[in-house]
Amino acid sequence: MGPAATADFYGKLVEETPATGDQSHVPVVIWADPRIPDRSLSLLGLGEDPTPQLRHGIRALKRAGCEVLAVPCNTAHAFVPRLADEAGLELVSIVEVTADALTAAGVTAAGLLATSGTLHSGLYADALRKRGIAPLEPSTGEQRQVSAAIAAAKAGAVTAAHRHALAGVARALAERGAERVVAACTEIVLALDSRRVPVPLLDPARLLARRVATVSLG
């Protein structure tokens, strides 16, 4: 739902599409509405329920002729599966494609960098545990640093201090046994240099783009 995250995802969709020209790319309708209430605050019981606005956007995409739904907001996946079903759209889940990638890589423990709402909802933790993968989450103090970096990315105000702190949390997760670190908030990749993480950093938005291209092009 964030403008920067939306632009980032569309760029990755273009990159991940095996096109030979304009006409062989995936036809896309983008519904970018930054007025949708904060999903993380809602899940924490601190903000407005975004369901009505999400439903409105999903139905608008259905009316526009869309058949496949991709939502490059991890936290929104606590709400969108039911709404996609209501609208009759096939949801390509950013959570499931990421969990599938970890399984395919034989990962047994993965670190999660995400909004507090995503962690609280158990979206990734549940999906990973179902596949026998241990989810590793930041400590309370580390999560405050993650949240600050996400907020800065949304405001276009990421500083060297934010990048340093985020890299420190990623390294701490690796030291606790994470074989991969998942950038489970789309803004994380806008604020974290993967070269500063001692284990591979997974970008769910890119994995989502790759799966959407595959599904859409058959």
The side-by-side strand order for the widest beta sheet comes to 4-3-5-6
CATH domain fold name of the largest domain: Rossmann fold
Overall domain count: 2
* Class inferred from helices and paired strands: alpha/beta
Major beta-sheet overview: 4 strands, parallel
Tally of strands: 6
Explain the overall architecture:
With 218 residues, this protein is an alpha/beta fold. It has two domains: 3-94 and 206-217, 3-Layer(aba) Sandwich (Rossmann fold), CATH 3.40.50; 104-203, 3-Layer(aba) Sandwich (Rossmann fold). 50% of the residues lie in helices and 9% in strands. The protein has ten helices and six strands; from the N terminus they run αααβαβαβααβααββα. The strands form two sheets. It has a four-stranded parallel β-sheet. The longest helix has 16 residues, at 160-175. It is globular, with a radius of gyration of 17 Å. The mean pLDDT is 96.
